[in-house]
């Protein structure tokens, strides 16, 4: 069994689409996943499974819809791909304030045409770098004031997206090793 990390988009935000982590953990258990850990209330799950990520995404989305009547986008990554993403962050250096770093998980690799088009958009003072199915963010101010939102990436890249701050990303990686 390999470790996987699932990130859910848009639950427990502003009191909408409320989903307790205990209920999510129970749902994951019913789906047959093992070693299930959740982290904070925003839909982060570490678990073990031999199934491919795309099949797991569909299973979790369908189960949440059936049990809670919410359409919740789910992105599942292999833990080792998250580890690679952490190691390759182009904005990380020893003296950086981790609050400026975020990782946007993409549901699929965007098309070359969409990547080319988005790179022409001025998002200063913020910066982003797209590598495969991840977008590294350097956000100078507060993330909620940035142009680099999930909606921005979804519209411009044509793929699903959800973002985690760097501390959460590091914690998910740490949990995947336990």
TrEMBL record:
Entry-linked Pfam families: DUF1697
SUPFAM superfamilies cross-referenced by the UniProt entry: SP0830-like
Domain of life the protein comes from: Bacteria
Residue runs in coiled coils: none
Alphabetized PANTHER family for the sequence: BLL4334 PROTEIN (PTHR36439), DUF1697 DOMAIN-CONTAINING PROTEIN (PTHR36439:SF1)
UniProt-recorded name of the protein: DUF1697 domain-containing protein
Organism: Brumimicrobium aurantiacum
